Amino acid sequence: MALTLQTLKNSLSRGEFEPIYLIQGTDLYLMEQVRAAFTAIVAPEDRSMNLATFDMREQPLGAAIDDSRAMPFFGERRVVIIDNAYFLTGETGGKIEHYVEDLQTYMAHPEPQTILVIFAPFEKLDGRKKITKQLKELPGYLTFGKIEEKEIRQMINERLAEQGYQMTAAAGNRLIELTNLNLTQIMAELDKLMLYSIDTKVIEEAAVDALVSRTLNQDVFELINLLLHRKITPAVMLYHQLILNGEEPLRLQGAILGQFRLLVQAKGSKLSEKGLATALSVHPYRVKLARQTVRSFGYKDLAQAFLGLVNMEKQLKSTRRDPELLFELFILRFQNQS
């Protein structure tokens, strides 16, 4: 059975350890959950002696392996953490030279009282490397792929329940929408929301709207919704505000084009949400939102709007015309198209 975060936490809490673990993934929140679980193995008063961390961008792999061979000082277990194990990827040219043979030798005869934890915060590892294959075959290999919306909602509910809070359904949906299903951002925003709602212990949608930080992608998503529903004045005001806030016109245009391209693809494709997400290398939640957005719009209208945005980008790059004027001309044409 594949190792999961929950099974890992359960085994560690029971005192059942593997000698070596490989933890792979890019979600900061989940990686920190794993780090905290391993750190908790060593009593706080013993951590200065029995908990060691080695950053592979600053220290050689050999130093971490040598430390792993050391016996615990006045304790039962020693935990050695290897951070940024980029030697497992295709990345080259680091200033530190790593000899993976040291790790391979250690894997054959690991120190029984040491738990070696290798963190690889990368989406992909180089599967052609022998050391990568060996580590992935270990029972202590845990990888975090793209997390499903259902799993994230469950984590939100568990976090709220632990702290004695509730969240309205509308607030939960708005939080998911504004964070684009980014788990690390969601958990950071929850801290703010719980502090804001400390008197009632209930998080409302108004609090989410007021407190959750907006990304450019979210602002662009809202802008496109306004455009599609022919809400011209609010769309112009939002575009103007984004420019006023310092967004580069070409960067903003690129984000709008990218989102509109996804809408066109979502409308025209017959693939499932997961299938289209895999084909486009985007999160399934983005495809879900795109399909919800375009449900009541025709493919022809979306395609014409996309071509209008392409033309606007060409003018931004080739002329000195005011970006806001070009945007207003674009939406006027879009409003009048059949």
3D structure, described in words:
The protein is of the alpha/beta class. The chain has 3 domains: 139 residues, 3-Layer(aba) Sandwich (Rossmann fold), CATH 3.40.50; 63 residues; 121 residues, Zinc Finger, Delta Prime, domain 3 (Up-down Bundle), CATH 1.20.272.10. Helices cover 58% and strands 9% of the residues. It has 17 helices and 7 strands. Strands 2-3-4-1-5 form a 5-stranded parallel sheet, sandwiched between helices. The longest helix has 20 residues. The model has no long low-confidence stretch (mean pLDDT 90). This is DNA polymerase III subunit delta.
Keyphrases for this structure?
single chain, alpha/beta, Zinc Finger, Delta Prime, domain 3, 7 strands, Rossmann fold, 338 residues, 3 domains, 58% helix
Radius of gyration: 25 Å
Strand element count: 7
Oligomerization category of the chains in this entry = single chain
Strand order of the largest sheet: 2-3-4-1-5
CATH architecture of the largest domain: 3-Layer(aba) Sandwich
The major β-sheet equals: 5 strands, parallel
What is the domain tally? 3
CATH class of the largest domain: Alpha Beta
Percentage of residues in strands: 5-15%
CATH superfamily of the largest domain: P-loop containing nucleotide triphosphate hydrolases
Shape annotation: elongated
- With helices defined by DSSP (H or I, 4 residues minimum), what is the helix count? 17
Label the structural class.
alpha/beta
Rounded average pLDDT: 90
User: Helicity level, as a percent range?
Assistant: 55-70%
Family: Belongs to the DNA polymerase HolA subunit family.
Keywords: DNA replication, DNA-directed DNA polymerase, Nucleotidyltransferase, Transferase
Pfam family, one: DNA_pol3_delta
Protein name: DNA polymerase III subunit delta
